[in-house]
């Protein structure tokens, strides 16, 4: 460290600029050293939390989200959170949710919710090359079930909440952590349960959730996506019956043939193209990073009415096609009871992903019209949960853009609509906007979410840790204040 003698201050104005410069250097170096130690310690904490979550089985069949929720609650209590602000809410055996609150002494805005789910999809160890419930570090990745969906964000939020408490961070609004059960399936013990029975604990101005995140192509960061809308999930059961008979005496009417004809007509139909605020913003913001042909196609898609050539261009790619229209597809088929008997029954499941704002009833009517067979009954498997897109407000989007630009210069922030669904739809349906954003980058060509050998880049995990810490502090600080702590 530089040593400065007191007599330098007595040598007049000639030396004073040099002294002040030297002091600034010392101060900066000290801050950098302190931040380096602090950052390493925080990363170690986040890893420890991540490891504990991955190695706690939280599958629907044999796992225990209540246990995982309690483990995270114990960590928050040990960090100094009062008992009255940490709740483990269990609604069924092995099903638990954690809700914790960092209170503002003088809130000037409504709370924000940091949402992540504790449950994971099933993982058969025999199908994996490693133990899915042991966090493995290899080749720059962390492997394990839930590393990308969604225990990375759960661990990040817990670690950052602990850090804020230890640092004495004072937000200008309450920060609520909600780690939930049953997002991946099972009974309604997650967000739906919390909103129905503990609305006061999770009521907020808006929610930060999964569903967005960074996109990489061949190792290059391309965009940091913000999920502001989700398509509506709705499945329909198609069913047709007959008296059957012996297979040696075929009849003109056969449930299998009747259903097959209906499915063929559904397969040939394309729902109309329709863009909303989120998908329009997606195509507009994505164009700077796209090749010329794709950019031209996007410009044509944004026209009123859109060019047919542009529609055909994007419809040829399933991921893009799902963004621009409602889709319905046959996913399950069951018929007959014996190989030597005429079928008495034929059933099919049609899974639809409906654009926000489109009434599910109109989709059902279109399917009935396409089926064109009054002997085939069409019923909803479960009621749909429609939710409107979240508004792309400057309060949320500007900090995301600023932090993204600071951390990854040249990376675009792109609003996005999920073609799948998350628990965020229940908040949106309750009138609370949701934004899926994480700063966790993954390669678009190597998606292992829900798949074998799920993994996350180590660097992406720690980038997300930093990004979400900055974002939450910015969203909970006075307008003229910087996020606490030195940032490099």
Strand runs, count: 19
CATH superfamily of the largest domain: Zn peptidases
Quickly give the CATH architecture of the largest domain. Answer: 3-Layer(aba) Sandwich
The shape, in one word, is globular
**Uncertain stretches of 5 or more adjacent residues:** 1-34, 480-488
What Rg is obtained from the alpha carbons, in whole angstroms? 27 Å
Mean pLDDT: 90
Assembly category: single chain
Sequence of strands across the biggest β-sheet: 1-2-6-3-7-17
Q: Briefly note the CATH topology name of the largest domain.
A: Aminopeptidase
* Straight-line distance between termini: 21 Å
Q: How many discrete domains?
A: 2
- Helix/strand structural class: alpha/beta
Task: Tell me the major beta sheet.
Answer: 6 strands, mixed
User: Helical content, roughly?
Assistant: 25-40%
Question: How many separate helices?
Answer: 14
β-sheet strand percentage: 15-25%
So what's the CATH class of the largest domain?
Alpha Beta
Summarize the entry for a quick read.
This protein has 488 residues and is α/β, with parallel strands linked by helices. It folds into two domains: 50-230 and 389-475, Zn peptidases (Aminopeptidase, 3-Layer(aba) Sandwich); 232-296 and 323-380, Alpha-Beta Plaits, CATH 3.30.70. Helix content is 37%, strand content 22%.
